[in-house]
Amino acid sequence: MKEVPVKLGPLALLLTVISICMTVLAILAFTTARADLSLARTYAETVKERYSLEILGQQYLQETADDLRQGIVLMPDADGMVHEMIEQGSMKLDIALKPEGSAGYRIDSWKVERRWVEDTDIGNLWDGTWN
């Protein structure tokens, strides 16, 4: 019987290309998972901060309702509204109440805002100045 020689050149090249592709895909999967984890943590902190701010706003409404029951009158601004600004962390809650007689109030606005801070860090890039 005659033996046929096996040529390993094309097979070795194919296996090398496949292993390089698998390595690149593994690195991409890992970096994507890390970025997703970082984004999820940031979102969780934002939600936690916002809900704690909402709780403070509801407590303010409860205190205002208790004051009205005790006969304390709301003092509106020049625009006829009672404004309350509650800040916590990087977020703030702006509540505007419109008094409706001595019996109650109506919530005219309830705005949650986040203070924006510009990110000026450019990493390892050259900033255009010489030392």
How would you characterize the overall build of this protein?
This protein has 131 residues and is of the alpha+beta class. It has one domain. Helix content is 47%, strand content 21%. It is built from 1 helix and 3 strands, in the order H-E-E-E. It has one helix at residues 9-69, and strands spanning 82-88, 91-100, 104-114. The chain has a 3-stranded antiparallel β-sheet with strand order 1-2-3, with helices on one face. A hairpin with a 3-residue loop joins strand 2 and strand 3. The chain is elongated, with a radius of gyration of 31 Å. 2% of the residues are buried. The mean pLDDT is 88.
Q: How much of the polypeptide forms β-strand, as a percent range?
A: 15-25%
Count of domains: 1
Distance between the termini: 77 Å
| Backbone CA Rg | 31 Å
Largest sheet: 3 strands, antiparallel
Q: Low-confidence spans: pLDDT under 50, at least 5 residues?
A: none
Q: What is the arithmetic mean of pLDDT?
A: 88
Q: How many DSSP E strands?
A: 3
- List the total number of helices: 1
Structural class: alpha+beta
What is the ordering of alpha helices and beta strands? HEEE
Helical fraction equals: 40-55%
Shape summary? elongated
Order of strands across the biggest sheet?
1-2-3
